[in-house]
Amino acid sequence: MPLRDHVPVMTEPFFFAPATALTVAEIVALTGAEPSPGLPLDRSIRDVATLDEAGPSDLAFLDNPRYADALPHTRAGACLVAPRFVAAAAEGQPLLVTRDPHRAFVAVTRALYPAALRPASLFGAQGVSPGAIVHPQARLESGAVIDPGAVVGPGAEIGSGTVIGPTAVIGPGVRIGRDCAIGAGSTLTHTLVGDRVIIHPGCRIGQDGFGFVMGPGGHLKVPQLRRVIIQNDVEIGAGTTIDRGGTRDTVIGEGTKIDNLVQIGHNVQIGRHCVIVAQSGISGSTVLEDYVVLGARAGTNNHVVIGEGAQVAALSGVNSDIPRGERWGGAPAKPAKAWMRELRAINRLAQSRPGGDKSSGSNDERD
């Protein structure tokens, strides 16, 4: 059998193929978009693309004025646009008008590419692969997939439809629900995982929290006695670490999305549907209530509470509690309006002294 029947060859740069095609009428039903006059509802859409790369069987979208100049020139078979961009289109262009083009575009992409929503076995395996090590006391439901090199410890439980990637380690007593994906090289110990959870490669979950009583004679290690609990529909990015609790469980709430390279300390409580962006660090016993957003490289001190719906700007350092619904930024973080006032004041001060301070007696050339 030719190689191309097994894996993509070098001339084929794509790893996902559309599972189906959709007519414009089906896209309208899926998104609620309003088709422009004359747009054939039986037109077949087979793929998605950007405005500049789309062809006659592709769907594109526009919701950012930065790309509005490309709209009249696109060759897309259909284009999702916000109402404010309709006037920028060329006459007769195949438009689908909707208040939120990006969300509609994603809905169509999900329908065309369902396989891209959750990692599959990297070995194309079914059941337990040769080379996997599964302890006799582990319990696997029918339909669980264990890739080569993975290790499943005694008393571990893995639900139907869950994929354990190559060289992943599932420790003793760990429970993983159904339709999950555990990425290659990840380790899970002292952890309970719900259904439809995605853990990307290289994550470390359930290891000791960083707890020591410091003293002149050395640092006394504090036993970390509790668990990590990851609720349903959580997604955790590659290289993220989540420490198990010391005196209470570390909890990641339902639907929360965590980016790559995030550190979450022991006893942390994260609510439902939070978003935590790359390289953020959450110190021990911090509480994030529901729908909190942390920008990239944000950090929190121990024991702070960030209220429901609050947002923290990138690079911010949170040293005190944040009330619900507020937007904070800076280091140390403060309400966004106060932070902006400070930045403007610093900028005005800098602009008022364009040549630097010559009255201090310093010599700029030698400094």
From TrEMBL:
Residues forming the UDP-3-O-[3-hydroxymyristoyl] glucosamine N-acyltransferase non-repeat region domain are 42-110
Record has Acyltransferase as a keyword = yes
Gene Ontology terms: biological process: lipid A biosynthetic process
Q: Where is this region: Disordered?
A: 348-367
Q: Which GO-annotated molecular functions does the record name?
A: N-acyltransferase activity; UDP-3-O-[(3R)-3-hydroxyacyl]-glucosamine N-acyltransferase activity
Job of this protein = Catalyzes the N-acylation of UDP-3-O-acylglucosamine using 3-hydroxyacyl-ACP as the acyl donor. Is involved in the biosynthesis of lipid A, a phosphorylated glycolipid that anchors the lipopolysaccharide to the outer membrane of the cell.
List the protein's name.
UDP-3-O-acylglucosamine N-acyltransferase
Native source organism of the sequence: Rhodoplanes serenus
